[in-house]
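@channel sequence for tomorrow's demo:
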Amino acid sequence: MRRALFIIVALALSAPAALDARVPPSMQKERDPKFAKSKYGETRKRLKSEGYQKHLFGLGMGYMRPGFQLEQGKSLHVAPIKNMARDETRGLAGDLADVAQERSVELLRESEIFSGVGTAEKKADYTLEIYIMEIETGYNIWGQGSWCVWGVNLYDAKRNLLMAGYDRIESDSYSRNVDFLVGQIPDRTTLFICRSNPSFNTDYVRLLRTRKFNWRIWEEL
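structure tokens (generated this afternoon):
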């Protein structure tokens, strides 16, 4: 009897404890704390109280100095994109931030508004600064996707703020999703800044009305 009891106790001690077993975290609906909650909504409320407008020139929130219009024939300096994302996700943008800067320069040159557009640090009539505030990506059995919170500022030669935009881009794709998010920044930046020029905005509205604006540039491929 004692021998049988000893065997039962030994088996019980050697068996894995039931309390140690758990469903894999990636299969649970509660969000991983590493996938940080966005402060976008909270920041939008603050910006609205500071005089920003909703959906200004296509961005979630925007500001334009009273009476300002983007002048034709001025020079523009496009500063390097500032990556302000948290340490755990800052690397997601990687070299794509440089690509976004170069693409922004190309599009702004194509607008033919400016006498010159470049990345070299030299005196210019306008300075354009783009920043990435948050960039996140996630994938589990409940869903997949990414989002990027970013902004853009336009200054004159005396560093007076002329325009400011704040936006959030989302992607439901997991494959090359970060490419898509960062790739959207040049397109949206160009329209936001250039639509403050009356001639450019008239041409943009005409393309919309005639359904000739290429919306596919904003589609995930």
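heads up for whoever presents: The first strand starts at residue 53 and ends at 54.
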